[in-house]
Amino acid sequence: MSKHIISRSLAAAFILLATWGCKITEPTSRAENTSTPESYIGSQDTTNVAQIKWADFFNDPNLKSLIDTALSRNQELNMVLQEINISNNEIKARKGEYLPVVNAQAGAGMDKVGRYTRYGALEANNEIKPGQEFPEPYTDFTLGVYASWELDVWKKLRNGKKVAVYNYLSSVEGKNFMVTQLVSEIASSYYELMALDNQLEILNQNIDIQKNALAIVKLQKEAAKVTELAVKRFEAEVAKNQSSIYVIHQRITETENRINFLLGRFPQPVLRSSENFAELMPTLVKAGIPSQLLANRPDIKQAELGLAAAKLDVQIAKANFYPSFRIVAGLGYQAFDPKFLFTTPESLLYSLAGDMVAPLINRNAIKANYNSANAKQLQAVVNYEQSILNGYIEVANQLAKVSNLEKSYGLKSQQVEALTQSISISNGLFRSARADYMEVLLTQRDALESRMELIETKMEQMNAMVNVYQALGGGWD
Asked: Sorted alphabetically, which NCBIfam families does this protein's record hold (predicted)?
């Protein structure tokens, strides 16, 4: 009868604990908004430049060499690779949590109790035949295997492993996103170096022109056709442009060292061929359709994996409300004398137990953790939506920039051609006294500025091409 009462009591306790654990208030959830516009500029062409590998996208062998070196030696990228290893090890650790834990144990000990203690009196007063008393001191030898296993009834441990897998995949996508940024930054810095080289060449050419004009002005001063003021204005303009040379040299040094830092090496010259920079044509960009961003951009895939992990974290936090079950077992030998250690069945020992634990008092703490997990899930939803929106806007901005820079470059080329011709015209008019020296100076200054701006526009064109490639998710494969 007593056994039936105990069984019924245990069953009732189990039902009570399970019911108590299941009373969970479901927080308000939010549906994800992952829809994107059908196209960028009305085109339905699915050809996407992001599917081209970076080694095929860039044609300059010097640039390819720089990127290849950076992908193997960049310190920040190598640190991220170690984060991936850590995430991989976390998967193995989580996998072991829902498997039985088995430990081997071997031990030896010695114990001497006092005569006038509880155990000493019991040993002395027991009716033991002569020669069979407790040994003094009492030695103990143990050899056995012990196991414990938490039953993953609510999939808490298995979900924990899945979270670790999602975190690992997320770290891989984070590495891929860093690669796209690294490739883009090196390419942009490389084109900036080429632009600076060309601006330096233009500046030297302009200084030569101004020195020739200065020589003419000095001759005209000797002939009393102009005053000393004209000579000084021309000398000041030459000195101004000569000082600009050192500004460009400093920018070249800083840009080279920026590249060297990304390559994980100490300062050294960066190999490049800048002679034909003005003739470079940006690669024709095929943007595809916006929905391809979900598959191509590593940051969007990383946010999606983070959302999947956050959903499982909510399930794990929810499982903490339910009872947990554990089985503990042991098998081994124990004796006070090594010669009796493996005597069977006298020295054999074994144990088997199971327990159930459910929260009763600290439910507020579990509720708080559950609500925090749900808040983080909603945070992951917003982050995912924001990454999609950010990706679309980045592509749209860069596509518009490519188009506008192309038109701007055409008009600036016309401006440079006209101003370059005006230099020889103004010089001729100045020699024949049909134009004053200020017209010559302003013409030369405008021509220099227009040529420098044309190189800046070409650099922006090349960088816009790189930025579109990155925004579409290219460069990491």
From this structure: outer_NodT (TIGR01845)
pLDDT at 17 over 90: no
Tens of pLDDT, residues 310-346: 999 999 999 999 999 999 999 999 988 888 889 898 8
Sequence-ordered list of residues with C-beta below 8 angstroms from that of 92, at least 6 positions apart, any chain: none
Rounded distance between C-alpha atoms, residue 269 and residue 266, angstroms: 10
Q: Are 318 and 160 in contact (CB under 8 A)?
A: no
- At 147, give phi and psi (nearest 5°): -135, 145
Longest dimension (CA), the chain: 142
CA 52/CA 469 separation, integer angstroms: 9
In this structure, the number of other CB atoms found within 10 A of the CB of residue 1 comes to 5
Phi (first) and psi of residue 287, to 5 degrees: -85, -15
Sheet holding 324-335, edge to edge: 101-111, 138-151, 324-335, 348-357
User: What's the rounded Cα separation, in Å, for the pair 213 and 235?
Assistant: 10
Distances (CA, A) of 301 to 7, 305, 382, 397: 52, 6, 14, 21
Third-level CATH fold of 101-151+324-357: Outer membrane efflux proteins (OEP) (2.20.200)
- CA distances in angstroms from 319 to 14, 154, 316, 324, 361, listed in the order given: 16, 6, 5, 9, 16
Which residues have C-beta within 8 Å of that of residue 372, sequence separation ≥ 6?
A: 317
- The tokens describing 82, both together, are 């170690």
Cα angle, residue 442 at apex, residues 439 and 445 outer, rounded to 5°: 150
Domain residue spans of the chain: 30-98+154-322+363-471, 101-151+324-357
CATH no., domain 30-98+154-322+363-471: 1.20.1600.10
Q: pLDDT tens digits for 45-88?
A: 788 888 999 999 999 999 999 999 999 999 999 999 999 999 99
User: In angstroms, rounded to a whole number, what is the distance separating the alpha carbons of residues 68 and 66?
Assistant: 5
365 CB-side CA count, 13 A: 5
**Tens-place pLDDT, residues 96-131:** 887 889 999 999 998 888 878 877 777 666 655 555
Per-residue pLDDT tens for 267-278? Answer: 999 999 999 999
